[in-house]
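Here is one chain, start to finish.
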Amino acid sequence: MTEDPDFKSGGDPFGDSSGEQPAAPEPVHLPSAPLQPMPKLWVGYLLALATFIGEMIAVARHPEILNPPDPGKDAVFSVPPLEIFLPVFVSYVYWLVCVYRYHKILAAVPRYKHPISPAKAVGFHFIPLFWVIWLFIWPKKIADFVNARFKNPLMRGWVFGVGFMGAMLCQVFLDPGLGIALLFVSTSYVGGFLARALSIPGDSPPGISP
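Its structure:
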C-alpha cells in the first residue's frame, strides 16, 4: 500500500503543496468624505437676510406694528405680516430639510447603523412638548458618531439644543431675522463637526457590526 506524504504530515491533499497561507484580507476603512452632499447652510443665512428685508417692508407698510401694546386692552394673538411670516416659515422648512439630510448622510455610512432614521429625526419635532427634549436627543446621537471618529469628546450634543432655544427666544422677543440667523449658526455647529468627522478615515465607530 502506497503511503500518501500529505496524509502523514497532516496536510490537505487537495490544497497547495507549497504550504503557503493565503494573504489576509485588507481592513475595510470607512469613507473619508460624505457619500451625499451636505446641506448648504448659506441658504439659511440668505433666508435670515430675507427676513430682515421683510421686516423693513412690513414696517413701511404697517408702521402701527411698532407701537407698544395698550395695557388697558386684553392681549390678543396676532399673526405677523406676510412679509415676515413667509420667510420665517420657509426658513424653518429648510432647517428641517437640513436635519433630514444630516441623518440621511449618516444612514448611508457603510457598516454603521445610525440609531435615528431621517423621517424620525424630522417627524419627532412635531410632537407637542416632546420636541423640546428631541432637540437635545438627536444632536447627542450625531455627537456620538463624531466623537467616535475623532476618538475624543469634542462635540457636545446639548450645545445645539441651547442654541435653538436661544434662537427662538430671540425671534419672539428681539428680532425674527436675528433669530433665524442664530438658528442656522447653531445648525452649522452640527454640520461643521459632522463634515470634519466624515473626512477622517479611521476605525469603525460604535454601532458597527464586525
